[in-house]
Amino acid sequence: METATIAAIATPLGVGGIGTIRVSGPGAREITARVFRSALGDDLRKMEGYRATFGHVFDEAGEFDEAVVLLFAAPRSFTGEDVAEISCHGGVYLLERLLSALVRAGARPAQAGEFTKRAFLNGKLDLTRAEAVADLIGAQGRQAAASALAAKEGALYRKSREICDSLVALASHLSAWIDYPEEDVEDVEGESLLSELTAIGEGLTALSATFETGHLLREGIPTAIVGRPNVGKSTIMNMLSGTQNSIVTPIPGTTRDVVEDQVAVDGMVLRLADTAGIRDTDDPVERLGVERARARIDQAALVLAVFDASEALTDDDRSIIAQCGEKPAIAVINKRDLEQKIDETYIKDKFKHIVYTSAQMGEGQQELSAAIRRVMRLEHLDPSAPMVANERQRDCVLRAGAAVESAVEALRMAFTLDAVDVCVEDAISCLMELTGERASEAVVEQVFSRFCVGK
Ligand code: GDP
Ligand code: ZN
């Protein structure tokens, strides 16, 4: 059990209407009572949990703000300890003064992630849900937030438990057979063991594959928008982002330094790399567009190849098409509003996904974002489904999968059941590391080091 009472500013620093300091630990009531006086006659030392009281915060120099204290009584709080949340006005000065007062009253400033870590150590949440808290805070798009929320509500945890439970059941069967060898494993049972293990292995493979999708949602989709000068790349980017400002920079020349633009499209985040050359059509750099396309395409997970419907295809167009290779790509035939001169059959031959836009009129945006969803396989995404959210989790799932595969091998090769059992136990260990039931201290430290202070 932790004995120190910790305190931290839980809201972003800056000027805001309300700022909150969270105090957690066995001394939360007492320490808070030393800096807060209720105007309603409530005594924080005795007050019931889930109640709020209004009053003033003070230090040696006197009262310095009004405040509301919300009290959560252990164990029914986020951390599992007594927690007081003190909300006062949101200025940096006030919050820091209040935090100093709390520290002088006996609290220790919390380290990054320490509240969530205590929640984990007190069994309030497993490691996957703790990680989801950080993901939720960092989420940039609607879908990323939705899947982080699902993880926070335990989607990955439950999936992991479910697989773990089947493995534990298998392992106990195995031990029974190992302990009573005279009752030989019948062929039938060997077969069913094999098919069960195979199914579990497939489940783990499918689970680890969700990492890719989740990664795209969280980190954004590295997108290359390529095409000859003047086909409408900038206009399309502006249309996608919905704001002129996010792409166009008022001072010409400054765009050279821009490495990446992030554009929110229909719940997804597109990361448009190297937009410098795309912006200024009069610039000689723009002429490098075709040559630079290759590098952009190589680094992208998604290619938007833009063509001008009002012109016949040129060699440059064809060379850009050739550069798209096997990358997930969408042909965007722009300037639909003008008289059509482009030869679509060539494009249809090379691209599975074609979208017509008139970017200047803002037409075709929905079609384009729907196509992006299709190409990136994000269309039927169920945000409540379990999803592997980071490298650590994927590593655990992959190792569990490899162990199950070894178990299948051992069984096929008719090794001893002991050998099979060892592999199954190994897989169980990996899954318990995933949820944190058996994670080493180093792993736990690592997880919480990602957090910000106050969480
Ligand atoms: P980029 O060089 O590929 O980035 O092309 P721009 O986005 O800078 O557009 C080049 C020119 O084409 C600009 O004058 C745009 O206003 C114009 N343009 C872009 N999209 C359309 C469109 O859908 N229809 C028409 N008629 N003009 C467009
Ligand atoms: Zn441009």
Write structural notes for this entry:
There is one protein chain. By secondary structure, the protein is of the alpha/beta class. The protein has 17 helices and 13 strands. The chain folds into three domains: about 120 residues, 2-Layer Sandwich (Gyrase A, domain 2), CATH 3.30.1360; about 140 residues, tRNA modification GTPase MnmE domain 2 (Four Helix Bundle (Hemerythrin (Met), subunit A), Up-down Bundle); about 150 residues, Rossmann fold (3-Layer(aba) Sandwich), CATH 3.40.50.300. Helix content is about 45%, strand content about 15%. The protein has a seven-stranded mixed sheet. Helix 6 runs antiparallel to helix 7, helix 7 runs antiparallel to helix 15 and helix 11 packs parallel to helix 12. The protein is flat, with a radius of gyration of 29 Å. The structure holds guanosine-5'-diphosphate and zinc ion. The site of guanosine-5'-diphosphate has 17 residues, from helix 8.
Assign the CATH class of the largest domain: Alpha Beta
Q: pLDDT below 50 for ≥5 consecutive residues: which ranges?
A: 244-259, 276-286
Tally of separate helices: 17
Radius of gyration: 29 Å
Number of domains: 3
The CATH topology of the largest domain is Rossmann fold
| CA distance, first residue to last residue | 19 Å
CATH superfamily of the largest domain: P-loop containing nucleotide triphosphate hydrolases
Instruction: Indicate the overall shape.
Output: flat
User: Mean pLDDT, nearest integer?
Assistant: 85
Our estimate of the beta-strand percent is 15-25%
Strand order of the largest sheet: 3-4-5-6-2-1-7
Oligomer: single chain
Subunit structure: Homodimer. Heterotetramer of two MnmE and two MnmG subunits.
Function: Exhibits a very high intrinsic GTPase hydrolysis rate. Involved in the addition of a carboxymethylaminomethyl (cmnm) group at the wobble position (U34) of certain tRNAs, forming tRNA-cmnm(5)s(2)U34.
Cofactor: K(+)
InterPro entries: G_TrmE, GTP-bd, GTP-bd_TrmE_N, GTPase_MnmE, MnmE_dom2, MnmE_helical, P-loop_NTPase, Small_GTP-bd
